[in-house]
Design goal:
about 40% helix; 14 strands; about 15% strand; 3-stranded antiparallel beta sheet; 6-stranded parallel beta sheet
């Protein structure tokens, strides 16, 4: 049986999640933030404006209040890249400022926060060094990147130095989409429904992961640990079509035998957050990828959900051990939270 309870008299009370009588440490792997000093540096250098809000601030009282109310013990903080058009010089300064501030904040609240390093992926060799510094110097638990880089796919050979460094370090690489700008530019995502986000974000993740599979990046770097936002987009729900293309149109996957295994097999070496909204969707995701590949996400502070814990608890077909793993056990291991 799975329950939860409040064990604090503070207002608001901090929710502690209990599974089968044992308190569970919960970890949110998808939580956004900004470093104002880095934003200001970029805005001054480029004469542009980056949209932020107070809840994105590292020390926002709203952040801790939401974590306590929702039963989130640890947030792994990440910053969506806004700097992929920046010069090498600006990128070097901006990323240094950003990672230093992230590290300082996490050190001030070590029981509640860890962070993904930021890197200037548009300069792959620089990004590899920034990742190394982020992990070795600043104690970051992984790295956050976009789903593409100024129109270039993550599977582009130009990015191999970054992927090699990520594999060497065993760093968890969190891929967060930035929408499909080329589709938005065509006008097809205009109108009601915020389709630039609702369709564009999951679609970019789907495309990015598909290229990493079909272009052989995951074969070249088999030790990569990749975490895909929003349940991996559409790929886990229709991945069998990727297998079928090898049979139906083998000439479109050349040379034959390029991949080491079937495309669907790669899903079981990738990781995915749980932001898929319904218990049935999460049950299906677990069936396609394996429950051991799932980790809780909230997308804080964006109000897509405030019930990530309950979502996992309510998903049918999961054992208590699987719930514990998804709520925080798998993330604890991958992020080195016991170290």
């Amino acid at each position: 049986m799975t329950t939860d309870q409040d064990v604090s008299s503070e207002a608001p009370p901090r929710r502690h999640v209990v599974v089968n009588g044992l308190q569970v440490r919960t970890v949110d792997v998808h939580a956004h933030c900004v470093v104002p000093e880095a934003v200001a540096l970029y805005e001054a250098a480029t004469a542009t404006t980056i949209r932020t809000n107070d809840e994105l601030l590292l020390a926002s009282p709203a952040r801790l209040r939401a974590m306590d109310e929702q039963g989130i013990d640890v947030e792994a903080l990440s910053i969506n890249p806004f700097w992929y058009a920046a010069s090498r010089e600006l990128s070097t300064e901006l990323i240094a400022v950003q990672n230093e501030h992230l590290a300082e904040f996490c050190a001030s609240e070590p029981d509640r926060f860890v962070a993904f390093a930021s890197v200037a992926l548009q300069h792959p060799d620089l990004a590899a060094q920034q990742l190394d510094d982020g992990v070795r110097r600043f104690g970051m638990r992984g790295v956050a990147i976009g789903g593409s880089v100024e129109g270039r796919e993550l599977a582009d050979p130009d990015f191999h130095p970054f992927w090699a460094k990520a594999e060497e370090l065993g760093a968890l690489v969190f891929i967060h989409p930035q929408g499909c700008g080329e589709l938005a530019a065509s006008g097809r995502l205009r109108g009601n429904g915020l389709l630039t986000n609702v369709i564009g974000n999951p679609l970019e993740t789907t495309i990015a992961l598909s290229h990493l599979i079909f272009e052989g990046t995951l074969d070249r770097f088999p030790g990569l640990r990749i975490l895909a936002a929003h349940g991996g987009g559409y790929l886990p729900s229709y991945a069998a079509r990727s297998d079928a293309v090898l049979r139906t149109f083998p000439d479109q996957c050349s040379p034959p035998g390029t991949l080491a295994k079937a495309p669907t097999d790669y899903l079981r070496q990738l990781y995915f957050d749980t932001i898929v909204f319904t218990p049935e969707a999460l049950r299906h995701l677990a069936a396609e990828t394996g429950s051991g590949q799932l980790m809780m996400g909230t997308d804080y502070p964006y109000p897509w959900t405030s019930t990530s814990v309950d979502h996992i608890i309510a998903t049918p077909g999961l054992s208590d051990d699987e719930r514990v793993a998804i709520l925080g056990g798998t993330a604890t291991t991958l992020l080195g939270l016991n170290g």
